[in-house]
Amino acid sequence: MNFHREPNTFVEQVNLKVQNIERSLAFYKDIIGFKVLDQTATTAKLSADGKTVLISLEQPENVIPKQPRTTGLYHFALLLPTRADLGKILLHFIQIGYPLQGASDHLVSEALYLADPDGNGIEIYTDRPSSTWDWKNNEVIMSTEPLDAQSLLEEAQGQSWKALPSGTVMGHIHLHVSELKKTEEFYTKGLGFAVVSRYGNQALFISTGKYHHHIGLNTWNGIGAPEPLANSVGLVSYTLKFPDEGTRKNIIHQLKNIGAIVTEENGYFVTIDPSGNRILLQI
């Protein structure tokens, strides 16, 4: 099953602030393999298939480095179509000497972790078939085990990395939040997601359509972590893609029922989670 199309609701685009747009473009084009759809002196829109924007970048005035111990982006996650694709990009990182921050087998998926030049976290992963995922009491079983890098490299068969495959999608986003109780209410009773996994009282993983997670939420930057300053490197917003207008209208109604604010800005419906993370509601 494809968890990133209707009737599911999923993350489609992540919008980031960076310190130097040219430095960031060099990374996202040359290291990761994005195509540039549109570019100005201070902004850029990036795509894997040449049509769908997955990442937008902007360099604000008076931008400051990413602030530690705040809410916002933990990482965004690019989902590659095949395991061989993950093997190819792993080989690519090894060949160019780009540092990885981690590499894990999560049972439901296999993942590489790194950061862009500004410290924005990135996961690049591939899913195992959903038929192999284990569920217990409506929660999916996930873990963090060592990645079998040798097996991945063998799958790549020595092929060089050219660019992100056109079938790459924004698999999920993982956010730092200031607490979990109000956050869970906002994302479940408001936005209509279901909790599919809990990591003690520190993290929640939520999805639609029984995906292992479209959104991760954690308090690892501390309970009560503040929002970053508006001109700090990091997350501007992210886009949730709804299957149709009826679903979006229902979600907006649910958000208002729990006291969340929904505004319309430049043709977009926008809401903000309890930790200040901005969400664009799209169809």
From TrEMBL:
Tell me which residues make up the VOC domain: 10-127, 169-283
Whether Protein transport counts among this entry's keywords is no
Q: Which GO MF terms are attached to this record?
A: lactoylglutathione lyase activity; metal ion binding
The UniProt entry, under Pfam families, shows: Glyoxalase
User: CDD domains recorded for this chain?
Assistant: VOC_BsCatE_like_C, VOC_BsCatE_like_N
Q: Which UniProt keywords apply?
A: Metal-binding
Q: Is Cell cycle given among the entry's keywords?
A: no
The record's annotation in InterPro entries points to: Glyas_Bleomycin-R_OHBP_Dase (IPR029068), Glyas_Fos-R_dOase_dom (IPR004360), Glyoxalase_1_CS (IPR018146), VOC_core (IPR037523)
Q: What is this protein called?
A: Glyoxalase
